Structures are given as C-alpha cells and as structure tokens.
Amino acid sequence: MKEIPITDELFLGAVSLERTLNGIKPWRIPYQDYDLYPPNGIDSKAEICAGVRLCFHTDSTVIVLKFSPIKGEARLDCMVDGKLFATAALNESDREVTYTNLYHGRKEIIIYLPQNIGMTVCSLWIEQNAEMRIFPDTQPKWVTYGSSITQCVGAHSPSRTWPAITARESGLNLTCLGFSGNCHLEPMVGKLIRDLPADFISLCVGINVYGAASLSPRTFKPALIGMLETIRDKHKQTPLLVISPLYAAHRETIDNVLGFTLPEMREDVRQTVEMVRARGDHHIYYMDGLELFGSDDASHLPDHLHPDGDGYEIIGSRFMEKIIMPFRKKDII
Questions:
Q1: Could you tell me if 163 and 203 are in contact, meaning their C-beta atoms sit under 8 angstroms apart?
Q2: 87, β-bridge pairs
Q3: 39 cis-preceded (ω within 30 degrees of 0)
Q4: Residue-wise pLDDT tens digits, 63-94
Q5: Which DSSP symbol is given to 113?
Q6: CA 125/CA 300 separation, integer angstroms
Q7: Mapping DSSP to helix (H, G, I), strand (E, B) and coil, where does residue 122 land?
Q8: Which of 24, 87, 217, 282 sits most deeply, having the most CB atoms within 10 A of its CB?
Q9: Does domain 141-329 have CATH number 3.40.50.1110?
Q10: Which superfamily does CATH assign the domain made up of 2-133 to?
C-alpha cells in the first residue's frame, strides 16, 4: 500500500478546510471566523461533516482511509461509479476504515464523511501499483440551508440523506448547511450563503424558530427578508427556493411560547416569497413543506419531528419529482 497526499482538491461539500497537525478537518463555516458564529461555531454543528465527501478516480482494489479520534458512533459510505458499495459503521475506538474487493480498473470513488460528527482526515492509502486522480469539479453548485431535517442525522447513512440523494441523482455539487437545532436565520449565515458560489440555493426555514421560539410573529418575516436580501447582494439571479416547515405532528396545532403555529409560519414564508417576487425578483420560488413531507407520512416520524431513514429517502425522491425535474424542464437549473 502507498499513501496518497491529502490535498484540498480531494474534498467537496466543505466551506473551509483546516490543516491541523494530524490532517485536514472540514468545516461548514469559514473556520477562521469561528467566533462570528456563536455559540461555539453554530452550537458546534459547523464542524459536523454533513454533505462533505472525498472524490477521486483510482484503479486500486483496496482503499484505506485513516482519521483522528472521533466523538461518537458514525458511518462512512463508499460509492463506486455512483452506486453505494459499502457502509462502514464506526465507533470511538476506530481510527481507519478499509474498503476491499473493489473491481479492477479505473473507477470513480466518493467517500461520504459522517453527517452526525466532525472528522479530521489523516491519510488515504491505495495499492502500491495503483494510480489515483482527482476528478474535476464541473457540476452545478447547490447550497441548501436548514435544520436537523436538512442535516439528516437519522438517515440510514451519509450518502442517504435527502440532500445527498437529490444531488447525486440530479448531478449537483452539494454544500449542505443543515445545522441541527440551529436554523435561526442568523445574519452571518446569510452572508455565508451570499459569499458561496452557487447555481441553485434552497432554504428550508421555520421549524427551529418555532421550537426554540427564537423569533416571534413580529420578527420572523423581517429576519427572513433580511436573509433573502443579503443572499441577493451577490446572487441576484441565482434560482432561490424557500421551503416552509415540513409536517411535524402535534406542533401543527399547538402554539409555541410566543404564540406561533406552524401553519402561521408557512403562511408567513409564502407571503414573504410572494412579496419579493412582486418587487421584481422572478428567480425566487416558494414550496410548501407539506408537499415534501405531510401528514400521510407521519409513520416515518418516530419522535414526531424527525423523519426516519426511509422518511429522508422519501423527501429526496419528492424533491427530485417536485423541484429538480420541473426546474430542469423549465431550464431554471
């Protein structure tokens, strides 16, 4: 076996890459600006590797990935030529994963890092006589922002989150800004999305605002408008999809401590998008979250809020059907 140098070009889906003494740590914020994303880098969610992957071509039949100690159980997926080859279940004592019996000949490898923890990649190894090449990043870039339902901790594995499924099936280069419990329309996240390259942007907003009562009926729409206007500073004509909350069981009928309900929140999101369109932005779109995941899907909500693994795959399928395919037919993306 021989070691392959770990370079920035190996990584897709990260906002920034921190070089440490042990290797490279992906971040979903600019790690140099950590202090500007309180508390603790979006409540420690920005260091989680949701959507981050290693991408390369090789003719090796064995691949070894080594990493620094991890905090908790996790999974790594190895995709070969677009198909899931193997899922490795990791625990805190693991320091490497080995994928064997890959077929001979050159093939595309994508290794999805965990969607529930952070990880520092230390080294990559292939067979002694094998070759490795990094394939060029030519796919349209998709940035998606949301809550735990976008981060998808409960997905079967990191390549089976709904954003990963959608991106892979539609040929989009995913950057996932799903921050579990922390989708609160922060101004710095708006600036982050504004500054990222993107050919398509989607925002799924509201459920964390409802749950944490972080914005009131008085302040929610202004905060959403502010984020949209910030993004438009640099993405003036980029297709921008705003999704209201998905179905959330009893939360549909119970006011939060500020008197907000999810139906009211969906109406606020719809009105905001319509207002922005009426002002001349013809590249912004609204989607009712119930179209992606509604009351008929309640059996896939084990905790009455977060979809299970099959539920996330349902969302991915519907996003393809209701957004990507129609947008493609209209040449929107």
A1: no
A2: 77
A3: yes
A4: 999 999 999 999 999 999 999 999 999 999 99
A5: P
A6: 39
A7: strand
A8: 24
A9: yes
A10: Galactose-binding domain-like (2.60.120.260)
